[in-house]
Amino acid sequence: MTVSLSRKYTFCASHRLHSSALSDEANRAIYGKCNNPNGHGHNYEVELTVHGQVDAVTGRVVALEMLDRLAEEQILTPLRHRNLNQEIDAFRTAVPTTENLAFEIDRRLRSVWKCFFGDSGPTLETVRIWETERNICEIAVIR
Amino acid sequence: MIISKKVEFSASHICRSPVLSDEDNFRVYGAAANPLGHGHNYVVEVAIVGEPDPVTGMILDLKRLKEILEVKVLDVYDHRLLNGEVEPFDRIVPTVENIAIDIWNRLVAKIDDTGRARLYSVRVHETNELFVEYRGE
Questions:
Q1: Are strands A82-83 and A2-15 parallel, antiparallel or unpaired?
Q2: Considering CB atoms only, which of B19, B97, B129 is closest to A3?
Q3: Which backbone phi and psi does B63 adopt, to 5 degrees?
Q4: Residue B54: how many CA atoms within 13 Å on its side-chain side?
Q5: What is the pTM (predicted TM-score) of this model?
Q6: Are B104 and B96 within 8 A, CB to CB?
Q7: Buried-exposed string B34-66: b where 16+ CB fall within 10 A, e elsewhere
Q8: A127, A109 in Cβ contact below 8 A?
Q9: Strands, DSSP E only, in chain B?
Q10: Residue A140 — φ and ψ, nearest 5°?
């Protein structure tokens, strides 16, 4: 029997949406207020969905403590209260939009996923990020 | 087309496996292994799938779905200690995973009997930060 389990985490960070490949005018047109040179911040929420078999003894699909530790090490500690543009390597080149932040978080989790959970463990099915209540981005593996 | 209905129940549980040591139980379940138990306000989202009836425009009469959920889920689960009072949690640990599977098992035949609708998924939210989805696979 397989189930999907979803767990939510929060962190706060600042960013500025600005592409060096675009003119100042184009940046303002595309990103609007998010292009403010002084930056601004969000309370981000990240929801991870994990899919796999329910263990017959523990009744768990994933060890929550391990999932929490993975999220803490790969997402929360590195990104919490950071200026994403200046302090996170990936965003020195890529614009820290919600889309690119989702890709970066997905990449960080997948880079160590097998080390944490092994080959036969649960899989990471979805990474979903709320930048605000109205702005949500999702990366999903279709099953 | 898929339609979802939400219901809520409150219950207590203890996440402990009799085949694990005390130490392992606390390692696996954390504070949820407290032998005195603790509780949650669970939110259950039941999704059914089917084509709407050409006359009524309904996949399933929502009053009927509400009755099924009341009898099959709420009457069984609401204000209970899951470990002692709800089968199969005298035998398996009432994790949110196993609760979702059990609710599916209680509903699936009843929903399929209604004709147009089939059960699509059962989501159980244990807290705002944690939920499980089971699709009978």
A1: parallel
A2: B97
A3: -65, -40
A4: 0
A5: 0.84
A6: no
A7: eeebeebebbbebebebeeeeeeeebbeeeebe
A8: yes
A9: 2-13, 38-49, 80-81, 118-127, 130-134
A10: -130, 140
Mutation target among A2, A5, A133 for the B interface, most CBs of B within 10 A: A5
Q: Return the structure tokens found at B29.
A: 């379940």
* Cα gap B93→B91, rounded to integer Å: 7
Contacts of B128 in chain A (CB under 8 A): 8
Cβ–Cβ contact B20 with A under 8 A: yes
Report the candidate in B32, B13, B7 with the shortest Cα–Cα distance to residue B80.
B13
User: Pairing state of beta strands B118-127 and B130-134?
Assistant: antiparallel
Query: In this predicted complex, what is the ipTM?
Result: 0.73
Is the CB of residue A108 less than 8 Å from the CB of residue A71? Answer: no
Give the residue carrying structure tokens 């080959």: A119
Q: Which DSSP helix (H) or strand (E) runs through A40?
A: strand A40-53
pLDDT 10s digits, A40-70: 989 999 999 999 999 999 999 999 999 999 9
User: What is the C-alpha radius of gyration for chain B, rounded to an integer number of angstroms?
Assistant: 16
pLDDT in tens, B86-108: 999 999 999 999 999 999 999 99
Helical segments of B22-81, H only:
22-29, 62-69, 75-77
Single out the residue of A61, A51, A8 nearest to residue B128, CA to CA. A8
Burial of B114 by CB count in 10 Å (0-12 exposed, 13-18 middle, 19+ buried)?
middle
